Amino acid sequence: MNILYVEDDQQARKSLRVNLELLGHQVMTAGSIAEANEVLAVNSFDRIIVDGTLRPGKDRNGIEFAERLIRQGKKAVVFSADTRYMPDGVPAVSKNEPGPLSLRIDKLLAL
């Protein structure tokens, strides 16, 4: 699967990227909404994983960014510590779910 992971925390970005690559996925990363928009202008992805608490860009946060991507027909999912207040139609996986990261990765890719 070809994946874009948008996360402003460098360590978190590296950790998930490495785990996804170990599973055989091709992963590009972006550290901001603006950078993600640049990457999306010239690439397409099977899945876009977005940190819900990204710093503001054109959208106020990562959740709004994911919501806009979904309205554009892209397969986006929010990966955030707090997923209680997701808008309807925005799939999300909590970073704080118990269990190994591999279970959360499975959920991210299944949504």
Average predicted local confidence, pLDDT: 90
Largest sheet: 5 strands, parallel
How much β-strand is present in the residues? Answer: 15-25%
Overall structural class, as computed from helix and strand content, comes to alpha/beta
Strand neighbour order, sheet with most strands: 2-1-3-4-5
Could you estimate the helical fraction of the residues in percent?
Answer: 25-40%
Total separate domains: 1
Number of helices: 4
SSE diagram, text form:
Layout: E1 2-6, H1 10-22, E2 26-30, H2 33-42, E3 47-51, H3 62-71, E4 76-80, E5 92-94, H4 101-110
Walkthrough of the structure:
With 111 residues, the protein is of the alpha/beta class. The chain has one domain (2-110): Response regulator (Rossmann fold). 39% of the residues lie in helices and 21% in strands. The protein contains 4 helices and 5 strands. It has helices spanning 10-22, 33-42, 62-71, 101-110, and strands spanning 2-6, 26-30, 47-51, 76-80, 92-94. It has a 5-stranded parallel β-sheet, sandwiched between helices. α1 links the parallel β1 (2-6) and β2. It is globular, with a radius of gyration of 13 Å. The chain starts with a strand and ends with a helix.
